């Protein structure tokens, strides 16, 4: 948990440094930024990569007058970036965006980070009038050895079936309600493929049998995984992200679950689970969700 907080602080500090640096270089040609010609997805990928490269220009994609922060280790707005000291040695940050997709005014990324150790991260950015005005994320340490033998990142990155976006989001929404929230768990085979289910959670094996065993083991240990509320369903084509809260290992957590769909069934899953700190530890009052 401490490493996650340090990661959030370091991330915000570096972005603040880029922002203040940009303010002090008024000679930057606005035409070079070409903000309006770039997609929201491009802007987010450039912004995240700038954490590694130190490029100051992508910070112009953030609205300096309105930036709502949901990483609870970081102060609200761009001013929050100035309240912490840089903890990262120069040039030590590594950022690799593995997947990025858009849903209306939202951009979602699945990213491999290295800040005080390797992290798997999901970030959500919301745009207004072409600028980023809000940010959510979830971070989890990377596990080298996984039950399935798959990493937390591998698998296809191709976005297809754009015409099925609404259909796929509705399927995941119903899956979350029926199976994860427990309304009708027996309907699981109506959502997850019985022929192929590739698993990237480090502690769960492939297919429905692997998922069932992992959930059974947790229940036997007296630490069942509980989904209590879903907050967001965002997707593009064959990729859909679900953002929920609940309990894991007897801790209050946020669940970020990324699903890939084929032919009306879920066939692949990536996730990140992060503990939500006590409110007394929050650096902003916006909440995790």
The level-1 CATH class of the largest domain: Alpha Beta
Helix content: 10-25%
| Element order: H for helix, E for strand | HHHEEEEEHEHEEEE
Query: What coarse outline follows from CA principal-axis ratios?
Result: globular
Rg to the nearest angstrom? Answer: 19 Å
* Sequence stretches where pLDDT stays below 50 over 5 or more residues: 16-33
Structural class: alpha+beta
The biggest sheet, with number of strands, parallel, antiparallel or mixed sense and barrel status, is: 5 strands, mixed
* Overall average residue pLDDT: 88
Cα(first) to Cα(last) distance is 18 Å
Strand portion, in percent?
A: 25-35%
Number of strands: 10
Number of domains: 2
Helix segment tally: 5
Short description:
By secondary structure, the chain is of the alpha+beta class. 24% of the residues lie in helices and 31% in strands.
Could you please describe the fold and organization of this structure?
With 289 residues, the protein is an alpha+beta fold. The protein folds into two domains: 2-142, Nuclear Transport Factor 2, Chain: A; 162-275, Nuclear Transport Factor 2, Chain: A, CATH 3.10.450.50. It contains five helices and ten strands. The longest helix has 22 residues, at 2-23.
